[in-house]
## 1
Amino acid sequence: AQSVSQHNHHVILSEAASLELGCNYSYGGTVNLFWYVQYPGQHLQLLLKYFSGDPLVKGIKGFEAEFIKSKFSFNLRKPSVQWSDTAEYFCAVRLFSGGYNKLIFGAGTRLAVHP
Amino acid sequence: DTAVSQTPKYLVTQMGNDKSIKCEQNLGHDTMYWYKQDSKKFLKIMFSYNNKELIINETVPNRFSPKSPDKAHLNLHINSLELGDSAVYFCASDAGQFSEQYFGPGTRLTVT
């Protein structure tokens, strides 16, 4: 069955530390890849997306992600986190199957950044 | 200029009641979705509609009935509410392949 795995459920960092959140998916066909962020009490907002082309994509607020096709991975990175990055981060994969597509989300990673 | 809006934002009701959540998007998208986010923040797709037609029904109990009067609206009606229905329900829309999904602000449903 298709699935999306986020390895870190809860990450605690100090400000200025570097961040890497892992995301792997299990699906051999065409995919679109996304990272969404959900700040406390708010809706999901898109951080970045990958459809095709350069596997290193840059998003908002200094985030970037790298698509490694051979590893079915799409890890999120930020060189220096800020307190305002405290949020829940979701990796999502759009699968194309049977003439339609659907978005499957990982379980999320809760990031807490301490000043 | 809200892109995807939902009403109500909060909904508290008792078991056995029937309730509806409304969703509207002003992005001109053809496809709309309902997701359920449980207490552990796990997001799961429930339904997808494309141009008012049901595309995806992810084995949701038939107490949940989505209705799309036009492609800008996708409402969710829930009959005979159960405790396990307590969650945050998000509406979303997109323009199809190679487009991102835009999410509404969510409706926090609490069933007592």
## 2
Amino acid sequence: DAKTTQPPSMDCAEGRAANLPCNHSTISGNEYVYWYRQIHSQGPQYIIHGLKNNETNEMASLIITEDRKSSTLILPHATLRDTAVYYCIVSSHFGNEKLTFGTGTRLTIIP
Amino acid sequence: EAGVTQFPSHSVIEKGQTVTLRCDPISGHDNLYWYRRVMGKEIKFLLHFVKESKQDESGMPNNRFLAERTGGTYSTLKVQPAELEDSGVYFCASSQDYGTSTHNEQFFGPGTRLTVL
């Protein structure tokens, strides 16, 4: 079972920042927070991951609270191509263990 | 560099028939995973290979499903005999060995859409 909780859906205006929240209150010390997304009819795609520090890459930023019980994925300037289902997943850093997908957040970018 | 590829992209079969799905991981990736999404459900893990060995097959639903990865390269997932509830999208993913990778990023293929009539 998924160890994360996300809102089922969100809308965001094109060009604005999309902030997707995730609760992972039972995360353990060796678990990272990963974000993947699935654009319609494609396979899931890795976005970003983090342990306890904020992270940024070319796709997004990840803000993790100090107690690590929740996080927010930020897409700084959302485009129509960012419309997808976004999954927040907690996973061990080592061993390449399986990913446990929950229901995710369906993000719709509005023109 | 080629990504993860899956064949076929679509398969329509009748109940009781056999279907074999194929996955070619990214070259050099020792880890290979199978996942599936059945209609209206979440993406669920099926199994994980490390090279040719099954590391974790806890998600395989029953003995009608057989996965192989001979030689540690491509993998096949056979469903025999197929049932109606097997309909869904089957995804394959691969990743580098954890000892050489900085994190557990799995690269997914486009999936095979299986329809059992």
